[in-house]
Fold this protein.
Amino acid sequence: MFRLKTLWTAGSRPQLWEGYKLTACRACSSQAGTNKGRNYATAAAAEPFLSGSSSIYVEEMYKSWEQDPKSVHKSWDVYFRQVTMGAAPGTAHVRPPSLTPSSSTAGITLVPKQTSTQLTSKEPVTDKLIEDHLSVQTIIRSYQTRGHNIGNLDPLGIADADLCSEVPKELDLHSYSIDQADMNRVFQLPDSTYIGGEEKALPLGEILSRLKNIYCNHIGVEFMFINNREQTDWIKRKFETPGILNIHADEKRLMLARLLRSQRFEEFLARKWSSEKRFGLEGCEVLIPSMKTLIDSSSALGVESFVIGMPHRGRLNVLANVCRKPLEKIFCQFDSKLEAADEGSGDVKYHLGMSVERLNRVTNKQIKIAVVANPSHLEAVDPVVQGKTRAEQFYRGDTEGKKVMSILLHGDAAFSGQGVVYETFHLSDLPAYTTHGTVHIVANNQIGFTTDPRSSRSSPYCTDVARVVNAPIFHVNADDPEAVMYVAKVAAEWRSTFGKDVVIDLVSYRRNGHNEIDEPMFTQPLMYKRIAKTPTVLAQYSEKLMKEGIVTQQEYEEEVSKYDKICEEAYVLSKKESTVSYRDWLDSPWHGFFDSREAMVLPKTGVKEDILQHIGSVFSSPPPGDFVIHPGLKRILKARMEMVNNRTVDWALGEALAFGSLLKEGIHVRLSGQDVERGTFSHRHHVLHHQTLDKVRYNALNHIYKGQAPYTVENSSLSEYGVLGFELGYVMSNPNSLVLWEAQFGDFANTAQCIIDQFISSGQAKWVRQNGIVLLLPHGYEGMGPEHSSARLERFLQMSNDDQDHFPTYATFNSKYNEKESDDFEIQQLHEINWFVGNLTTPANYFHALRRQIALPFRKPLVLMTPKSLLRLPEARSSFEDMIEGTGFQRLIPDKGVCTKKPEGVKKLIFCTGKVYYELMKEREKMNRDETIAITRIEQISPFPFDLVKQEILRYPNAKFAWVQEEHKNMGAWSYVEPRMRTVLRKIADSDRPMENYLLKKVEYIGRNPEASAAAGNKQRHQYEFSQFMNHAMKEI
Ligand SMILES: Cc1ncc(C[n+]2csc(CCOP(=O)(O)OP(=O)(O)O)c2C)c(N)n1
Ligand SMILES: [Mg+2]
């Protein structure tokens, strides 16, 4: 009564009463045959539960429907159509459903149990009977399959969650052999439904009413596309079993308390900071209780750690009421005058993450909750959350995801619009990427900024993307908190039972504009008129519970003032905060990591020779036993073993030695990307495949030492955005792990640009969060066309934050030609930069670069341009000599040839980076310029080795300087290197009078001309360009 009356009056909403459809049908069925001119008001008024005003409402609705069936909600449409077809006489004999709230929830009401004997059909078996039974079976299946399409899901009662107002034909009785006249006939229930409970047969009218109540009301269960009978049966049981949705009065009180906090929190913020953006939750306040129920239920099922990713909407509320971040820490973020206590540039309050450990009061178990910091780029955080979750599961040995789970929150527009959602879903069931089920919650306010869903998606629901992985989807009317609570519990159980993703679609609305300052009436006038008339869910629910006698007005008001007081007190405390500490907002704190390390000491990365020998020979040995490997691989392993015996190392061996030595030191190594197991260029071969047995594999690097750390190498799905995001999240969990993502070709990294821009290059500045991920990006001009040549080195360099005009001041400069910078120049630079970018030319340097990632006392991303042809180039091999103890990473490799004997005779000093070095060497030899041209390799381009470049420049006093690159002039490292070279020259000139002429010196550009496309598509043109710039390079002046 309460809901019907209040809500109809307040919002003029159709069919908000849960049992309405059933009862309305019955009311009409007693007047079978009178299709036209029926007095619906009278019929409705005859029902004891319908008030007079609602009867008038029904009458008006009918008139409107007569003129245009589409003018009313589709559930009314169904009802009126059935009634005008002729209601079955006698259907009213079935007792109307109970309206006692305690025995119903989620819009579902149940008839009293009848015994099987009462319901046994006495009809003789005829063709018609069989056909009718088949019809009933089909109808049942149709409701299970399509019922959600006509559900009462929109709290505003104006839209269809699936954007379609048609009633599916399968749900129309006209499509079947039975009709209204059969409503009293008893039908056997098939075993594909649980609506009967212990009953094996029910009258058709009852079957239909139960189905409607279950599938077409406040919960729309979309699951019949799942191609697994056990799973669909499980869901049917969860929703069809009579009485299963009943909830206890205590749970209702808890729901009310949580709803209250959710709403009052937003109201408090609105009162105190009325002109501040906060992306409030108003209209979808149930998000908070839904998350809390999910966490309670999952905690009861054994989950100890929750990793959450979410967008802006309701984020502050989640931090306050789900994570219980101290309110004063949230409130003080509104004070723009507070000083930041940490380095970095910070981020707005609704992007920050957090991590907390606390007691779950419902289960009395300790839980950990992390909300991952995210950029504005919607959904970008999804794969990051999955990677972090997977890593936590890995380190806990939680192989089935029973202890750690991820929760992803989404907006409706972003969920359907952003491709990374799809990419992330496709990781969900892959062996090395699964997190054993994610619970997705969509705060579906049926709008995206100002855009109507009809303009923002082509799919019926905003959640359809989840169907690709057979995730069940629970659409739920967000104004029915008990229904929401129920689906949250089912979602937790689903994940725990099947280890698979599940979606909760909270169909709601947005009470304000996109943010609180926006005017929504500009673009959604009708919707917002309706919103203005719609009471808040808290108002509705508190009134409902008061009517049910579950809480009193006084209790409710006390609870409100109690929470308001908490907010006020926190507000006072927040005023006492003098700084904002971003460190308090870390989503992945590395306890003890920084304390245990000496801050500014450059680590040693060389390794004892016997270790190199041992790793090298295990890596080069075939698998033990009768494992059959490909003959080609036998040859490769043999060649590897010869290299080990000769103390030489190619690229693949250098990498394996780095990995192996770290694994020995207890560092978990993980390499992921497309085809990384073999390597795109067939050089790596970390996983050997048995040639006669399926799925029998051997990974030598997991068998080097007893007690070593595990090595994971895994071919990924064909995604860059998703997979790079995942690996970034993975490495966030533990600084003592080496995690590498390799692009198939470097340029494919651009489809992961958001992760690179928003997280990798800027994560530390925004969120004081360090990260040691390694990006391996095959790069090099080898005539393979525009799309396989360039990893877009220029972009990475452009995002480096070392100042092009500033020669770092921690140098000790003593005005002599041979002065040396201070010893900690290198480590200081590494410490200050946002990431390292390199283009390495030797396996030894690659080995040291990888080892340095772990040995450093801090973590920074490492972006490497990696080789293709160099992988097999004999000249590009290293010796053990360059990797043993005492050796280290070389930021710059000076020329060691004859030119260094008489540096005054050198006419040209060429600086370069990457593979072009070997081409220059070859050309120099060919042209016999060994004494007059020196070639210096810059291996670590960023941070720029100002100190070493200076030494090189000073080494050759009579030389002119050139930068040679194979990339086009508007690409490659040139635009990064050139101003820094100028800074070095200026520094030299500034140091002493005799050096002033360095100010006049320039660095000449030698390379390809500017171009729009990254490389020539035609081999001949590629060669022509190459010879042009090589000729130029070999000119002495
Ligand atoms: C990738 C991306 N594109 C565009 C935006 C700008 N933007 C911010 S919020 C928003 C609307 C989001 O709608 P929805 O996902 O439904 O969430 P809601 O704000 O309705 O909660 C847009 C387009 C963004 N943040 N990220
Ligand atoms: Mg939205």
